[in-house]
Structures are given as structure tokens and as C-alpha cells.
Amino acid sequence: MKTYRMRISEVPLQDDWDVIVVGGGPAGCTAAAAAAREGARTLLIEATGSLGGMGTSGLVPAWCPFSDMEQIIYRGLAMKVFEALKAQMPHVAKDAMDWVPIEPEKLKVIYDDLVQEAGVTVLFNTLLGSVETEPEGRVTALITANKSGLQALQAKVYIDCTGDADVAAWAGAEYLKGDTATGDLMPATHCFNLGNVDEYAYLNGPLLHNNNKQSPIFDILRSGKYPQIPDSHICNNIIAPRTVGFNAGHLWDVDNTDAYSVSAALMQGRKLAAVYRDALAEFMPASFGSAFVASTGSLMGVRETRRITGDYILSVDDYVNRRSFEDEICRNSYFIDIHGTEKEEKQAGGKPEVIKRYGPGESHGIPYRCLTPRSLQNVLVAGRSISCVREVQGSVRVMPVCLAMGEAAGIAAALAAQLPGHDVHTVDVKILRRRLKEEGAYLPDPPVAQARESADPSQNGAFKYH
Fold first, then answer.
1. 3 state DSSP class of 228
2. How far apart are alpha carbons 154 and 409 in whole angstroms?
3. What is the mean pLDDT of the chain?
4. C-alpha distances out from residue 343 to 229, 250, 252, Å
5. Rounded to an integer, what distance in angstroms lies between the CA atom of residue 444 and that of residue 437?
6. Fewer C-beta neighbours within 10 Å, C or N terminus of the chain?
7. Where is the composition biased (Polar residues) (predicted)?
């Protein structure tokens, strides 16, 4: 690759932060709010003009389940955000816990209020350009770019909530990306909203989701009239009056760490939204005959890129055995949701599930050590790029658990900022867990007998919780 030597040798420096959070998605918002709540001077950097990530700019139309089919398990700030949005959506039942619709404009303001009330300073439309480090794995500054130009931002502790582990990777952390054998990444989806939908016809007509074997999506595919529609994936929800949000179709070979790849996919996705509108208007005229494309996501719906290698790597065995950990910072009950290759998704029935879903009341723990890149001193990672195997990433990548992980990372960063050397690996997890519980986190203690059975040292203090 050709190189260019910049004339600029110095840029303005702002060095009065305790914690800097990069990425204002669900994990970033709760991380920043939690750090500021603990008294840390906190800056949140966001590349777009609004907070919320995939639930707002990405137009994902519904929350993944907040419950383990018995009770809400993503609590604390996660539950606060969830309940605040539900309260503003009159068509949503007050006791709804799973697959609850998202009205993105309302959610943007809820996230704004969350961080502002905590005392966070936010920088919108600000891109991370470079990460400055010392040889021992200590980040010394972030170089950012926005309308004010280039700037160096310095803190004691940094939280990477970029979704792609940009801060950690650029600082030299070890990571894996996609399928370790093939390099394949899960396909992306460009979400969109259709307006002027006939709600009565939509609610009383055939279920459009592909779980319904009589869904009109299969008629559309069989007709051959809309070859641009790739497969039967079509999640959809009423998100506002006469407005249906769609998480539909797959775009393969999209790499969110490659700016050219994402740029091309966004243009492809916008065209695909119009094709879906036309197909639905023809095959479901009562519902969508007068519908129009009201909006498309300004963010691509990316499911997978990098996963850091942390002090602990969450395994399939941990997931299958519903394992708990002495340093766990939240529970998770979402199923292993890996979207397949083009061949797998286009075959009859789509990609088969290999790992059985949890039953009511079942969940697994996520240890703090999955948030700590093992080769970096003052960086935490929260969100879909934590330390885990690819199968487990298919579960922990969704918004409810990202909200919970973010709050834990924020408290931990505030604690680390008070330590000599600001080493995130030396945070007292007992204090961290106590603070999380005080703020309402769901962290059930295991039975004493099972705690004694944690004796397998290869699991670094893991024990099973049922």
C-alpha cells in the first residue's frame, strides 16, 4: 500500500477525562452513563448524529427478548431504557418482555436523557482515526476527527463500544474475526420502515414472519418476480401508527471493518427496500398496497466482525451448561442466533439450529474477564465484540445483553480510573458486582453446594448455575 507522510506533527490535546467511551450504541450509552454516575469525568464519542446504534440509526424494529421466559433478566440501566420506551408506545402491553417494538425517534431521546442526566459529555459526528499506545499495552490517546478538525483525547481508561473492537484492535489487542476456518462473516441486513400501512389488514392478515410456513414471503420467492429478494428472512413489527419496521433479507460479504464494503452495501440495501415494498404491495395489497418506503437505516445492520481475546474466552460449553462465574457481570438467555452463508440461508428451512435453545428460567453468566483484552492495560470492551467463541457471539451480540454489559464496563472503568496505573485487570470484582446489584442488576448467587463444585481450575472459577 502506498503511504503519505502528514505535515501535521501536533494536534490539540484534551486530557481531562477519567473515562472515554467510543461508540454510542446500547453498550456505549450504558457504559458512559454508569461511569459518570460513579463520579468519573466521562466523554462519549459517537460517529453519527444520534445515540442508540442499531435500535435507532440502524432501524432494528424490535428488542430481542428481555426475559428468560419467566422474568426480565437484563435489569439496571438496560431495564430503565426498555421500560422508558415501552411507556411511550401505547400499542405495547405494559407487561410485554420479549420482541417488543422499537420506535427509533423516541428511543434516541431516551438515550440522550440517560447520558445527560448522568453528566456525560457527548461528541456527535466524531470519528476515531487512530489509537496511540505505549509498548506495554497502555493506550495514551485517541486521535479523532470532526468539524473541529483533528484532536487528541486522553483519559485514564477507555471503553471500546464500537461493535468492531476498533480501539482494541488498533491498539494491538489480539482478536479473531468471523469463522476461524473460512473467514466467513454473518450476513448483514439493511433495515427499513414502510409507512401508510393498513394496520387492521396487517394485524389480521397472514403472519409475514418466515416462521409461518404459509407466509407470503414464500409466495414472493416462488414467483420469481423479485429476484433481488435474497431469502425468506423477514422480521417485522408495527413501530408507530401505520408504520411497520422490517429486519428483512441478507446482504452477504459485508465487512464492517472495510469502509468500501459497507458503502456499497448501504446503496444495495436502499434499493432492496424499494423492492420489498413493491413485492409486498403486490402480494399483500390490503396491508401494503398504499405503503411507501418511509426510511432506511443510516447504519448497516452488521452482526459480526472482530472478537477480542480477553482474559477469559466464553465457550460453547459455558453456554450449553448454563455456567455461572464468580466474576460474572450479567446473565444472558438469548439463543445461538448465527445467520448462515448464502447457501445455508437459501436452502429449504434456512440454516438449521445446532445448539438447543434454553428453557424457561435458564441463562448463563458473562464474566468480567470477557471484557478485558488480555494484552491491553487500560481498555475495556463491551458489546458484540467481547471475548467469546463465534457460536456464543451469535447470542451475546444483541441489544439487551449489550446494555447490561455496558453498565458493568462503565462501573469497572470508573473503579480502574481510581487505581494506580488504571489497570482494568486489577479491578475488584466483588466491588463491581456489589455496585451492579445495588443498581438493580440480575446477578443471582449460586447455591452454596454448587459454589463448592466450582473446583475445576481450568474454568478459572467457573461454576454451574441452574
1. coil
2. 18
3. 95
4. 14, 12, 11
5. 9
6. N
7. 456-466
pLDDT class of 456 with cuts at 50, 70, 90? very low
Give the pLDDT score at 221.
Answer: 97
Residues 6 or more apart whose CB falls under 8 angstroms from that of 386 comprise 307, 308, 310, 314, 366, 370, 371, 393, 396, 405
Mean pLDDT, range 308-319, rounded to an integer: 98
Q: Tell me the three state secondary structure of residue 149.
A: strand
Give the residue carrying C-alpha cell 458486582.
Answer: 433
Residues contacting 43, CB < 8 A, separation 6+: 17, 19, 20, 21, 32, 120, 121, 122, 123, 153, 155
As given in the structure block, the three cell numbers for residue 121 are 459529555
| Assigned C-alpha cell, 290 | 398504499
Strand-pair category, 234-240 with 243-248: antiparallel
* d(C-alpha 121, C-alpha 45), whole Å: 9
Please count the residues of the chain: 466
Q: Using CA atoms, how far apart are residues 118 and 19, in angstroms rounded to an integer? A: 13
Over the stretch 404-425, which tens digit does the pLDDT of each residue have? Answer: 999 999 999 999 999 999 999 9
pLDDT band, residue 463 (cuts 50/70/90): very low
Residues 330, 460: Cα–Cα separation, whole Å: 17
Cell of 213: 410456513
What residue type is assigned to position 134 of the chain?
Answer: E
Distance, CA of 163 to chain centre: 7
Stated as kind and residue range, the H or E segment containing 274 is helix 259-283
pLDDT tens digits for 202-248?
Answer: 999 999 999 999 999 999 999 999 999 999 999 999 999 999 999 99
C-alpha cell of residue 353: 439450529
339 vs 268: CA distance, rounded Å: 19
Is residue 248 a contact partner of residue 233, using CB atoms and an 8 Å limit?
Answer: yes
Secondary structure of 321-354 in HEC code, one letter for each residue: CCEEECCEEEEECCCCCCCCCHHHHHCCCCCCCC
CB neighbour list of residue 176: distance below 8 Å, 6 or more residues apart: 306, 307, 309, 390
| Grid cell locating 125 | 459526528
Dihedral angle computed from the Cα positions of residues 287, 291, 297 and 303, in that order, rounded to the nearest 10 degrees? 30
Give the three cell numbers for residue 28: 456505549
Q: Is a pLDDT exceeding 90 seen at residue 446? A: no
Mark 50-77 as b/e (b = at least 16 C-beta within 10 Å). bbbbbbbbbbbbbbbbbbbeeebbbbbb
